[in-house]
């Protein structure tokens, strides 16, 4: 990890802990250099990153200030952290297999009829879009399907950590070949819906985990080695054939 990234982590934790209150003024660049024992270029690099994360604001002629709490800023900060990491897409998918399997089991217990209808609706949209080679619509419906399962829990604590999970889902829900129908693995989604509707937690967990088995197929071997930040931007969509 670069020295400036270490400073970012240190200051980010200090801000989150409340060591620096919202709207309070941070030490000057010179003071930070002295207290942290680093050069001014390292401090400036760290401050630029913290500013891009929305945690601080540099006011010319007045100093550096901690910004007021803002959920959107925190979401962007988490998203930036994910994209700056060295996580590979295979590692992300393994995490999703475990997390979403456990969540599906719980949703089988607590999901309301409205939740289940919403989940099935997104599945039907997903299946129809893939069938009609509407790849952008398929990606949106596929993402919404998985997000609807997460949101069905309605747990306040989960709501706080949902944005980074959403980022993982949105960034890893595209197959490596978007115009290959088989790679969308539509058929593996219906057992998830059926299991949730049955209220069987064991079946729901098994169905969700089985869905992620596609990542173990040989054709995904190269895709799994991509960095998450690269996989999140690839591949691009082209118009449906015909």
Topology (elements, then pairings):
Layout: H1 3-17, H2 29-36, H3 40-52, E1 56-59, E2 63-66, H4 71-84, H5 89-110, H6 113-131, H7 135-151, H8 156-172, H9 190-198, H10 201-211, H11 221-224, H12 228-231
Antiparallel strand pairs: 1-2
Helix pairs in contact: 1-3, 2-3, 4-8, 5-9, 5-10, 6-7, 6-9, 7-8, 9-10
Could you characterize the architecture of this molecule?
- By secondary structure, the chain is mostly helical.
- The protein has two domains: 3-69, Orthogonal Bundle (Arc Repressor Mutant, subunit A); 86-231, GntR ligand-binding domain-like (Four Helix Bundle (Hemerythrin (Met), subunit A), Up-down Bundle), CATH 1.20.120.530.
- It is built from twelve helices and two strands; from the N terminus they run H-H-H-E-E-H-H-H-H-H-H-H-H-H.
- It has a two-stranded antiparallel ribbon with strand order 1-2.
- The longest helix has 22 residues, at 89-110.
